[in-house]
Amino acid sequence: GAGVSQSPSNKVTEKGKDVELRCDPISGHTALYWYRQRLGQGLEFLIYFQGNSAPDKSGLPSDRFSAERTGESVSTLTIQRTQQEDSAVYLCASSLRGAQALRGEQYFGPGTRLTVT
Amino acid sequence: AQSVAQPEDQVNVAEGNPLTVKCTYSVSGNPYLFWYVQYPNRGLQFLLKYITGDNLVKGSYGFEAEFNKSQTSFHLKKPSALVSDSALYFCAVRDTDYKLSFGAGTTVTVRA
């Protein structure tokens, strides 16, 4: 079966432009996470979606960041007016609700490497 | 908040030698601890977890980890490292019902 997919795999953009990153979770996974991985640093939680519940946006670093998810399918992470400090790998993960999520078994996509010039 | 620390940025070992990647944790209550591995240009893969029970946890690819409550550690180990084990390893702790808090990662290089 297909895993978590993300697109694009690489994105180079100019400072001040908006970018949109896409995540396709594993079919049937109700939970979806976005993380940011800066060079030499661990994963930084950004946002969590669970079914139709209100998302946990507590990790979004500024109001330039937003994310949407339609039902239990595709999610998009949008960064407006990009800054150089936004350069990072953006990882998406999904998991089943409940026990699997509780056990921490998240399935990660390959990431989108964003470079802001 | 729960957190983990990985004190080593890099670990270098020769193929066939034992491999240890260190992780310490700081939690209130009982910890749920995890190890993930990230191979070059690929997403993170779940390796193993400790929830409760035996302190020695066995996972994928021949890895195991030992939970030590007195030392608040959860070190990842492999008795005989392979070149293909060269990757970035992350320790993580469950922070909420669904959120994981990750360490900064340890780059493992296994030389032939």
Give a written overview of the molecule.
The complex is a heterodimer of chains A (117) and B (112). With 117 residues, chain A is mainly beta. Chain A is 3% helix and 45% strand. In chain A, a hairpin with a 5-residue loop joins strand 6 and strand 7. Chain A is globular and about 40 Å long. Chain A starts with a strand and ends with a strand. The model of chain A has no long low-confidence stretch (mean pLDDT 90). Chain B is mostly beta strands. Chain B is built from no helices and twelve strands. In chain B, strands 2, 5, 6, 10, 11 and 12 form a six-stranded mixed β-sheet that branches. In chain B, strands 3-9-8-7 form a four-stranded antiparallel β-sheet, with no helix packed on it. In chain B, a hairpin with a 5-residue loop joins strand 5 and strand 6. The model of chain B has no long low-confidence stretch (mean pLDDT 92). The chains are: A mainly beta (117), B mainly beta (112). At the A-B interface, strand 5 and strand 9 of A face strand 6, strand 10 and strand 11 of B.
**Structure summary, number of beta strands of chain A:** 10
Q: Enumerate how many helices of chain A there are, as a single number.
A: 1
Oligomer: heterodimer
Tally of DSSP helical segments of chain B: 0
The greatest interface here is:
A-B, 25 and 24 residues
Into which percent range does the helicity of residues of chain B fall? under 10%
Unreliable segments of 5+ consecutive residues of chain A: none
Number of strands of chain B: 12
Rg of chain A from C-alpha positions? 14 Å
Can you tell me the overall shape of chain B? globular
Hey, roughly how much beta strand do the residues of chain B contain?
over 45%
Supply the helix-strand structural class of chain B: mainly beta
User: Overall mean pLDDT score of chain A?
Assistant: 90
Order of helices and strands of chain B: EEEEEEEEEEEE
Distance between the termini of chain A: 37 Å
Question: What is the averaged pLDDT score of chain B?
Answer: 92
Strand content of chain A: over 45%
